Structures are given as structure tokens and as C-alpha cells.
Amino acid sequence: MYTDRMAGREDEGRRRLTVETACPLDCPDTCSLAVEVEDGRIASIDGSERHDLTAGSICGKVRRFGDRVYGEDRLLRAGLRNGPKGEARFRHVSWDEALDVVAGKLAEVRDRWGGEAILPFSYGGSNGLVTQDTADARLFRRLGASRLARTVCAAPTGAAAGALYGRMPGVAYQDYRHARLIVVWGANPATSGMHLVPHVRAAQRDGAALVVVDPRRTALARQADIHLPVRPGADVAVALALHRFLFELGLADERFLADHATGAELLRARAADWPIERAAAVAEVDPELLERFAELYAETSPAVIRCGWGLERNRNGGNAVAAVLALPAVGGKFGVRGGGYSLSNSGAWNLSAEAWIGADEPDTRVINMNRLGRVLTEDGDPPVRMLFVYNANPAVTLPDQNRVLRGLAREDLFTVVSDQVLTDTARWADVVLPATTFLEHYDIARSYGAINLQLVQPVIEPVGDSRPNVELFAALAGRLGVAADGAFDTDPEALMHVTGAMPAALRDSLLQDGTAATPVPARPVQFGDVFPRTPDGRVDLFPAALDESAPDGLYTYRADDAGAGPLILLSPASGKTINSTLGELRPRSAALQIHPCDAAARDLENGDVARVFNALGEIQCPVALNADMKPGTVGLPKGLWRRSTLNGSTANALVSDAPTDIGGGACFNDARVDVTRVVTAAFGDRNIAIWTTPSASGKPH
Ligand SMILES: Nc1nc2c(c(=O)[nH]1)N[C@H]1C(S)=C(S)[C@@H](COP(=O)(O)OP(=O)(O)OC[C@H]3O[C@@H](n4cnc5c(=O)[nH]c(N)nc54)[C@H](O)[C@@H]3O)O[C@H]1N2
Ligand SMILES: Nc1nc2c(c(=O)[nH]1)N[C@H]1C(S)=C(S)[C@@H](COP(=O)(O)OP(=O)(O)OC[C@H]3O[C@@H](n4cnc5c(=O)[nH]c(N)nc54)[C@H](O)[C@@H]3O)O[C@H]1N2
Ligand code: SF4
Ligand SMILES: [Mo]
Hints:
binds iron/sulfur cluster, Dimethylsulfoxide Reductase, domain 2, six-stranded mixed beta sheet, binds molybdenum atom, 27 strands
């Protein structure tokens, strides 16, 4: 039994074991892990060889995850608020007392205001198929609570990929070495999914060309044959120029389009408006570079596009992703190993606990999570009276941070937060509940980079009084008398039952082997082994539903607001945190990355403290001059805690909650700001050492 391995390898005399598990953090790679445990404590965390993609190596974030498990921010006890809202003063109580309070409040709010006055709020912290959308969903369904549209990430990409291809599985990382051309578009894998990089490098050694489309000169952009530093939000123009090039020069694969696609004529018509020169002007790139890219894409096969999420996070994001994903169809890149595209494989498994959760409960209103600030501060029908946060940290990860904070400050809002650490959100709670980490509970990790399921198992006992989500929600369900059918048991096998729809064979395989055979090939050839999951099995290049949902129609470009701030603030993933998880371990203030010419225009030097501002708020932080930024853009990492700037505001204080064009996503990379100096660096350039957090390459990012 796989789960017995925990007791397996004991060294002589010392209670030192190596336990195999998997990393379920919100990262595409889903590494297999080997964790050394000594006397019941984590001694080290490393990659295991079990999963070929991991191949024994993992990121620095998870190697030091023990610092979070045993860190000073760890929540060890349940607590009831014992001071003004937001001051994070709590009186420690037993789980029983905390659960009584929470269950009592859930019942009270439901009875007095209706179930919809309760808003459960979660995203995907480190949660696989067991610790989210199972016991929690069932409880909240039974209570008739409001539902949440999980749009903070991947909503535009998901909508586009779903409409064009029905979420067809993508090219596996391992097959990138078969490609002759690799296009990395709005993704930064060296930071956000590092196990792709060796495969890209191997292909390059074999002569493959690399194109990176990114406003920043990322680590991979430095190694690329072409780096196209597009203006954020201009990707739709760039992709349409490539389409026009293919169509008008007779380089489109008409045969493929006739056999496998619908809507090609409509796409061709929209693309006609975008000659290379026009797109290059909008994207602020060299037209010759763009033309070289178009030629390279037209003439090279196999060609693969790694589409990331950086390009989705602006007003043109959904259209951009649709236009990018349409390229392999028009260019005729499918049907060969290493040809096509990769995005997310989270849909590859088609697993859903929906039936188990309770499909027959009446529908309740759906709230777009990106509008949490507004939902909490504006009248609703009914207003939200109780907010239950778990697997998420909305005080720092959502748009319009100041509005979210005003909402959390409401005296008449009862907030429950279950988390592993005292997050910026938990500080506002009326009740805090300590949660286990993935090293202390069971889960099933579903990769969205690879196509792969792995068992996550506890390697240590829960720290302090922390409890797994399933236990928390089972206990609440018991108190509220809403689900007394034994489905909330917590031994490993029973836990697997909360995954409802999962076939028994899959479950057994996970428990026996720690992994399960894939129902689709793990390294699929698109239009070879896997096909669009659209109703007619064809790629729909102009889906009516997307056209209707896009405010200006599909494949259109929405230009900048006149008069908005002159700089665009980007907030991409950093190597220090995964979203805001591990952000508590950042030792010092983050620095605003700014191109030297934008800095010079504002009389800013390395280490000066600046004000970054727009109508929504301001951030105070030091600046770091960085020639890898595109002029006209500035950058702060996503996932900062409030303590990581000088005034407690992070990038999201300047991000509006206006939705993306498609999918209701967040426009994180679309904030217009300006920057002024507040304080001059005391010791000139040397002071920067205090402020910047260099990346592994030694360069600030
Ligand atoms: N270390 C680490 N890894 C992570 C995460 C993390 O927080 N830390 N988060 C995980 C999660 S939840 C996700 S969703 C993924 C995201 O992974 P990625 O897709 O890599 O997303 P980002 O880092 O947000 O942005 C990628 C790149 O897009 C660029 N970009 C920004 N705006 C635009 C634009 O308009 N057009 C183009 N072409 N490029 C643009 C940015 O400069 C950045 O280099 O990473 C996952 N992996
Ligand atoms: N400015 C800006 N903001 C962004 C982005 C951006 O690019 N720019 N990217 C966005 C993206 S891609 C995403 S995915 C979102 C993510 O936003 P969030 O979902 O809020 O992600 P995290 O900040 O990692 O918060 C997850 C929390 O869940 C907790 N947690 C983990 N596992 C468990 C568990 O089993 N039980 C309980 N109770 N808690 C648990 C963790 O401790 C952590 O505090 O952020 C978005 N925010
Ligand atoms: S965060 Fe990503 S790279 Fe790091 S261990 Fe987890 S799956 Fe691997
Ligand atoms: Mo994400």
C-alpha cells in the first residue's frame, strides 16, 4: 500500500523516514516530492524521481516550505476576535467552541437573511480534488449560500480554450524537444513552471528557434531568437497580424481548415484589418521583428505555442488568447508530435464531484470573486452578512485592494478565515481556524501542466491544532445537521469518497501506487490522439458565444483610456512566492521595477522611495532600475503581503475591478499609474541592497 510507505524507510536507530508525496500548490508542474522527516519534523523537502517531469528537482519555494510549516506566522490555535476589526487580536479557544460559534452564526444568518447572505470564498491555494469543492461545497450548497465564480485566474483563457477547442489537452512539456519552433507567449516558465525550461533548452540545442512574446525581457527572452516586447494588452493585434500574414500570403493550411475548422472566414475577415505595420505600431514593436516572427511561424513545423496567463490579465485578454490559440489551426501546426499549443490541462480529466455535492439543490446567485470589494461595500439583495474564506487570501490577491479592505472592515460583516498562517485576510477575521498544510493531510493533486494525478499524503502530524478542510466542513455539517450520511469520514480511503465521481479503479490506483493511469495519453498529439471536445469535434475559430460575450465583438482591440496614467503596472509571478503563499517569508520591502529611461524622466535613482499611484490608491516602495522592463511599464511582484511595501498597499491597490473582455477575469496587468519620488536614497546606489530582492540570476525581476 502506497500510504504505508510513511512507516517504510527507517534508518538504524534514528526515526528518520523519507516519505513520497506530491506538491499541490497552484503551479502547473505538480512535482513528486521526497520529504525527509526526522523525529516527526520535516528535515528536508526535495524532488523525487518518481515523476519523470520532476526528475528529482523542485523549486526553491517548496524546498523551504518547512519555514512556513514551522514559521512564526503559522496559525496554531482557533481564535475569536478580541479587539477592533483588523487588529488581529484573538482569544484562543478550543475547536469545539470555535465551531459552535461558526455553526451558530451560519444558522443565524441563513435564518435571518437567507442563505445567500453567506458568501463562501475560496480559490485554489494548495488544493486538489479532496480539499476543495467536496465537503465544503456540499455544506454551502445545503445552506443555500451564494456561489462564487472563480474568475481571479484563467477565466479568459478558460473561456477561449473552451470555446475554440473544448479544452483539448495540450502538448506535453516532454514533447517540446520535438518542436523546431517554440513560442512562449505571455508566460514566464523559468519562474512559474520551471520544468518546461529544460525541454525548451534541449530543443534549442537541437536547433529549434525560440520566440518570446512578453513586455519584459524574461530569463527565456534573453535566450530567444526573437524577443517581441509587446505593449501589454496588444497581443490580439499581434496575433491577428500573424493570421493576416498566413491568410493573405496563401500560407494558411486551407486543407486543415476545411476538414477540421469552422469560422475561418470570419477570423480571416477580422484579421484583414491588421497589417504587420499597424499591429507593430499598436504593440510598439519593430515591424521587421514582427514580420520575421510571422515568417518563422509560417515556415516551421513542428511549432508549439506555450500560451501563458500574463496576456489574459487585461481588457483585451480573452480576445488575445483566442487569437493566439487559433494560430496553430490556421498555420497547420497540428497532427505532429511537438506541434500545436499548451495552456492548461486542468480539464483533461473531466472529473467532477458535482453529483456527489448535490446537483439537486436550488440554484443561488453567483458572485464574481473579482468584485468582492464592491459586493461587500455596496447594497446587495441580500447584502453579504457572512464571509467564509478558505484556500484564498483576498485582502492581497484581488483587484481593487482598498475596496476589499473597506469591505472586510465592515462592523456588520462576520468573517471566518481558515488558513495555515495569519494572512492579511485572516487579520480581519471574527473567527480564525488553523488549517493543515499539504504536508499534514491527504489530497489528490491534479496537474494542469502535465496530465497526471498524484496522491498527496501527510508526512507529519498536524502542527498545533490545525485541521484539514474536510474535517472542518464535516464538523460544521454535523453541527448544522445538513449532511449526516457518513460521507465526511476522514480516514484516507473514506476521504477519497469525497471525490464523488472518481472511478473506483482510479482511487485504488492512487492509494496503491500514489499515482493513477491517465484516461487520455500523457503526451498527446493534438489532432492525432486528442481532438477538440466541441460538439462537432472541430475547432471553432469564431465561436458565437465568445462573440456575444465580448463587448465589442470577437477579435477586436480595445485601446487605452485617454488620459489615464502614463505607465502600465505589471504584477507577474515571482520566484519567492506562489501567489501570496510564502509571502510571509519575504524579509524586506519589494522594489518597483522601472526602466532607466522612465526613471530618468522622473528623476528617480536606485533605492529612492517612490509613490506609485492612480485614482484608486497609492503604493510606497523603493525603486529598482531595470532595463529588462519595457519602457512605459513598471513592475511589482504579485502575491506580496501588505508588510512588503512601505505603506501596506500592494499592486492590487492600483488595479481596478473592471472585468476582462471575456470571462469576467481580472485586469491585473492593465493598471495605469504614475510614479514620483518621495525620499531620495540615503546612500545612493548602495542602498539598493537593502531593498531589492534579486532573482536567482542575480538580476532584479
Ligand atoms: N513562482 C511562482 N510560480 C507560479 C505562481 C507564482 O505566484 N509564483 N503562480 C501560479 C499561477 S496561479 C499561475 S496562474 C501561473 C502564471 O504563470 P505565467 O503564465 O507565467 O504568468 P505571469 O507570471 O502572471 O505572467 C507571465 C508573463 O506575462 C507577461 N505579461 C504581462 N502582461 C502581458 C501582456 O499583456 N502580453 C504578454 N504577451 N505578456 C504579458 C509578464 O511580463 C510575465 O513575464 O503561474 C503559476 N506558477
Ligand atoms: N496583482 C496581481 N494579483 C494577482 C495575480 C496577478 O498576476 N497580479 N494573479 C492572480 C492569480 S493567477 C491567482 S491564481 C490568485 C490566487 O489568489 P489566492 O487564491 O488568494 O492565492 P494565495 O494567495 O496563494 O492564497 C491561498 C491561501 O490559501 C491557504 N491555503 C492553502 N491550502 C489550504 C488548505 O488546505 N486549507 C485552507 N483553509 N487554506 C489553505 C494558503 O495558506 C494561502 O493563504 O491571485 C491573483 N492575484
Ligand atoms: S511549486 Fe511547482 S515547481 Fe515548486 S515544487 Fe511545487 S509543483 Fe514543483
Ligand atoms: Mo493563477
